[in-house]
């Protein structure tokens, strides 16, 4: 099993012919991902990287049955790209773009909330189901198939956690980089819930950071769910000074519950195995999986 993406996903790339879209689409195709085409307005009918180019997402859905998209559209136009994908019937919308204006994301989130789709991101590394589909910018060679799910706000720590899990002789079901912006589609709780409910996922790694309530919400849901699947948790930003944004736009301490210490306390109280250093993630996963 997997969540969100797999070998049967029919993936398009919005911003296909741009430099970022070209590079990462090429990497995805090389990985074996089922990329069925891409979208660049005004370039419909052309071919790029051996795949058809469409003017609109709607055309791609009609012509090649696309059901998943990855967005490499510049920030000023990315929210429109999200709404276009959702209205065309795309089920999984993975948005890599960083720096989308918050007001634009408020509008996009409101637009898609009643539509049958899942938004991951923006400002995220994407989603990977090892050996099936890499829909993102992560280094595919780090990920091996297995029974550990990963949810992370940090792109780099997603890869680090996967590498450690693999070095312990284990592997990954699906890794979801949810993104570090103030307004994102799939929350930590929603991503954790997907993996807890996946029959092949035996353990979840949850990587958060200072700022916001996402990790606390996920921890409380986990406690209430009564799930026996272990979660290993880490919070980045322990030494961040209050009031300063750290790396991600959403990583800023706004109140007493936003600190790394407070989040770690809440997670521990809810039954999550919390580690103090990212270097301990792989060992702790091995320990709790048994």
Structure description:
It is a single chain. This protein has 290 residues and is of the alpha/beta class. It folds into two domains: 11-120, Rossmann fold (3-Layer(aba) Sandwich), CATH 3.40.50.720; 138-289, Succinyl-CoA synthetase domains (Rossmann fold, 3-Layer(aba) Sandwich). The protein contains nine helices and 14 strands. It has helices spanning 19-31, 57-64, 75-87, 102-112, 155-167, 188-196, 214-225, 260-269, 281-289; strands spanning 11-14, 35-39, 47-48, 51-54, 68-71, 92-95, 118-120, 126-129, 133-136, 145-152, 172-177, 203-209, 231-236, 273-274. Strands 3-4-2-1-5-6-7 form a seven-stranded mixed sheet, sandwiched between helices. A seven-stranded mixed sheet has the order 9-8-11-10-12-13-14, sandwiched between helices. The protein is 34% helix and 22% strand. It comes from Flagellimonas pacifica. One of its GO terms (molecular function) is succinate-CoA ligase (GDP-forming) activity. The active site is at 248 (tele-phosphohistidine intermediate). Its EC number is 6.2.1.5.
> Can you give the mean pLDDT?
95
CATH topology call of the largest domain: Rossmann fold
Number of strands: 14
Number of helices: 9
Largest sheet: 7 strands, mixed
Helix content: 25-40%
Compute the CA-based radius of gyration: 18 Å
Oligomer: single chain
Q: What global shape is seen?
A: globular
Question: Judging by the overall fold, what is the CATH architecture of the largest domain?
Answer: 3-Layer(aba) Sandwich
InterPro entries: Cit_synth/succinyl-CoA_lig_AS (IPR017440), Citrt_syn/SCS-alpha_CS (IPR033847), CoA-bd (IPR003781), CoA_lig_alpha (IPR005810), NAD(P)-bd_dom_sf (IPR036291), SUCC_ACL_C (IPR005811), Succinyl-CoA_synth-like (IPR016102)
Active site: 248
Protein name: Succinate--CoA ligase [ADP-forming] subunit alpha
EC number: 6.2.1.5
